[in-house]
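Researcher: Checking consistency across runs. Here is Phosphotransferase again:
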Amino acid sequence: MISEKMVKNILQVFKSSKIKNKYSGKRISKHSIQEEKKRLYAEEDILSKLEDIFIIGPVKLRQIVHHFLEEFRKGLEYDDYSLAMLPSFVTKLPTGQELGNFISLDLGGTNFKVCKVYLENPYQIRVQQKKFSIPETAKNADGERLFDFMADSVESFLKDRNINKEKEQELGFTFSFPVRQTGINSGELYLWSKEFNCSNTKGKDVVMMLNEAFKRNKINIKVKALVNDTVGILMASAYSDPQTFIGVVLGEGTNAAYVEKIENIAKWKGPQPESGKMIINTEWGSFDEEKLVLPINKFDELLDQNSLDPGKHVFEKMISGFYLGEIVRLTCLYLINKKLLFKGQSSIIFNKPNSFDIQYLSRIERDYSIELSDTKLILQDLLLIPSTTLSDRRIVRRIVELVGIRSARLTACGVVALLNQMNKLDGCTVAVDNFINDYPHFINRMRDAIHELLGSFSENVNLIHTKDGSSVGTSIIASMVNE
Ligand code: GLC
């Protein structure tokens, strides 16, 4: 934030008779000093209004954690509660002795990943991976189209590796959408998220749909485990670090899984597991759809209204990679319309929903150059804004920062609520995966907020990044299934 003192200092420099305009060599006139003063105050005013909209103070953080705890209890009690708290059917953490090799499929965002995972020991895991970009049309067509696309991709992966598709392979399926599991390798899809919406799929078993697509392609594969990405991440981290009790995804969507005592899962009607525990997939993206505590602002509202599923996954829409750029874009557009940014000029690209990619956010946050030159490149060369001033770029950079900080602080609330729920303030590893790996400051911002909430107990929270966690974790679960 620019303080009054800083404005005075900057103006002092302008006033100094030695300073001349660098282009004309002429002394800077009283008029331009006045102009500069006006501009700085205008910038200051815009920034402070944006800060009011996006900054979440400590009282709000506490309120959110408190509400999370109430919602966890309800989700664990009722079958169709908005915060779903889904039993994963995973009742044991790995011992580190799980071995074998598995095909692992990962569907959860823009790319579909097919991997061959070799579990040799907890410190030696080999992953061969191929990514397939999901055609936009397959995301919103009949479900058969999406599942056929997956089967085709698996066929191409097997072919590349000279694996005979008729020879039976064991597979773990990471399917990162809301699914009510009915067993370790079965579950009904009840909702799409992350702008997917395939028809003829809701209420159907996703493993059955996958098996049918394999049959159509004559691929001999046995699906041993159906796993949410968060559960996979938790398991992958617990494989080498037994203190891991929480897995968090910050990718195109956001969600978390944790280890719950079976007696706390009031809605659980299945057999009592020997361990007395069950991993719960919270589906926290759906937290507070009633909008009781979340500090939802006009840009969040607009984003939600324009989305494929208004009113759903509102927490996710404030946090995850698919949406952060859109919040930045909508905030900028608002300022452009008020002629407070880019002299009121936008561009065809900038006007297009979702054109502000999450990678632009990381790059802008990493731009420490005096002229904010990478920010300029992104705005002018990639997003085709006709021209930007340094002041414009400073405003955009601050918007990006505010949106990123808010996301990290909201995520921290969920993590702290889970630590409280498990009574694990004495020590817990929290494995965090996905876009976060490349996003500057995110983990530290989460740490700051966790510290604000937990004080010295925050030292017992070990936040770690993981990579490929979901594919590895799903293979570990597949290896634990004895049939
Ligand atoms: C969405 C999905 C959830 C998934 C998360 C992260 O929130 O509903 O199942 O875990 O995205 O991929």
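Researcher: Does this match what you'd expect to see?
Model: One thing to look at in this run: DSSP finds 15 helices and 13 strands in the chain.
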